Amino acid sequence: MATTGTLKELTKSGTFTPQRTISSTSQLTAPSIQRFSGMVELLTPPTSLDDLDINQGMVIDIILRLTYNEGEVSATHAEEVIKLPYKLIDEMLSWMQQEHMLEVAKAVGSLGRRGYVYSLTDGGRNRAKEAFERTQYVGPAPVPLEKYTKSVLAQATIEKLDRHQVQQALSHLILPQNFDRKIGPAVNAGSSLFLYGPPGNGKTTISEAIAKMLGGGEPIWIPYAITVGGAIIQIYDSLIHKFSTDERGGADNRWGLFQRPGVMVGGELTMEHLDLRYEPVAKFYEAPLQLKANGGMFLIDDFGRQQISPTQLLNRWIVPLETRIDFLRLNSGMTFQIPFKQLLVFSTNLDPDDLVDGAFLRRIQIKVGVFGPDEKMFYRIFENQAQALGFPTVDRESFLYFLNEWYRKTGKPLQSVHPRDILKAVKVLCEYAGEPLHMTPALIEEACQGYFVKAKSGQIL
């Protein structure tokens, strides 16, 4: 006769009594866990079904879908995919076997229960099809929204950077004197920054350096997925979340230890990217970009060139910038709030007067102009890029030709990106000709002819 009831009821009734493990946080001493107050409690893995912080049926559904997709599944493989402790997975598999959802297809080696490989029964396949109707999600078990919220708030408290640390992080860039004093306060405040100025002068590169500075470069804990209102929201994005090599300790495997995220978007940004994205076939949600960026940086590059108007975009950010809270809505109509804890960076080469109004600018704490270099800085950039590209020496005559013929005579403004691009073109010309890497005025001229465009007005673009 089939055994009925929930897993918790079974463990209490004695029908099925797995061994219990005493909860311990002795392994949760790694610096990555201890760095932020309150994270030990959040990262302690469940040691029994009673400790599990989500509905057990949600985990059973994942096991059913996993087994249906792969035909057979072992407890070890389920543990790797679902990222719950082996003990809990084994208890669930045993209960599902007693409920005639699963049967042991074979036993591998002398590993005991770890060697069992399970397959679905006819009843299990019917239950799996019902689970697929709810969602097709197969992956790490989610953590509750409440735990995620607590983790973001706990990790939002970061150690402030001093001036030397900021200068060191920007040392690979040729910037005006005291430029760090404009950037450092924005990084420490961790709220919002507006970068503006003509193109080609390093706004995006500066933003990338800022992303690496956040939190002193220390990694943070982010769950692979969260659950709210019975729905699953996948946060992990392999393009955004890069694993840290720091010691994990005994942390709950449903949480990944990642470098602070840096989300960068340009003209492809639409309003849909800022809301929960529901996949009607897979039937689970993908987190919006600002949720993926929590604890890190969200850069809106080329601001003003998005597929949505600046006004629409700015209106979307007014409340989060003011309250540090964002609101999302499930298809069921349920609305919930999430922390908005990231450095939001707007970068534009358009005139700010044409993009934003005073009300919005007041909500952005720091505005930094990034303009073209003077001739002294331009030479330093040229010298720096020549060294980086492997030129044995910097030919001063070639540099002066570049400066006189293409800037002083034409009136074209100096741009920080030009030395790199022109020297790259010179390098390609040398390689094509089979010549040793070198620079001459003639090679500079040939590179510029292929790089710059002369408009009908005579302006060099």
Task: For this entry, give a set of tags.
single chain, 461 residues, Arc Repressor Mutant, subunit A, Rossmann fold, Helicase, Ruva Protein, domain 3, 3 domains, 5-stranded mixed beta sheet, 18 helices, elongated
Q: What share of residues is helical? A: 25-40%
Biggest beta-sheet profile: 5 strands, mixed
CATH superfamily of the largest domain: P-loop containing nucleotide triphosphate hydrolases
**Major sheet: arrangement of strands:** 4-7-8-12-11
- Report the end-to-end length measured between terminal Cα atoms: 82 Å
Shape: elongated
What's the count of strands?
Answer: 17
Q: Any idea how many domains?
A: 3
Low-confidence stretches: 1-25
Summarize this, please?
By secondary structure, the chain is of the alpha/beta class. Helix content is about 40%, strand content about 15%. The chain folds into three domains: about 5-140, Winged helix-like DNA-binding domain superfamily/Winged helix DNA-binding domain (Arc Repressor Mutant, subunit A, Orthogonal Bundle), CATH 1.10.10; about 160-220 and about 260-370, Rossmann fold (3-Layer(aba) Sandwich), CATH 3.40.50.300; about 375-450, Helicase, Ruva Protein, domain 3.
Give a description of the structure.
The chain has 461 residues and is of the alpha/beta class. It has three domains: 7-139, Arc Repressor Mutant, subunit A (Orthogonal Bundle), CATH 1.10.10.10; 158-218 and 260-369, Rossmann fold; 375-451, Helicase, Ruva Protein, domain 3. Helix content is 39%, strand content 15%. It has 18 helices and 17 strands. The strands form five sheets. The chain has a five-stranded mixed β-sheet with strand order 4-7-8-12-11. Strands 10-13-16-5-17 form a five-stranded parallel β-sheet. Strands 1-3-2 form a three-stranded antiparallel β-sheet. A hairpin with a 2-residue loop joins strand 7 (225-228) and strand 8. Helix 4 packs across helix 7, helix 5 (75-82) crosses helix 6 (86-98) and helix 17 (418-433) crosses helix 18. The longest helix has 16 residues, at 418-433. The protein is elongated and about 85 Å long. Residues 1-25 have low confidence and may be disordered.
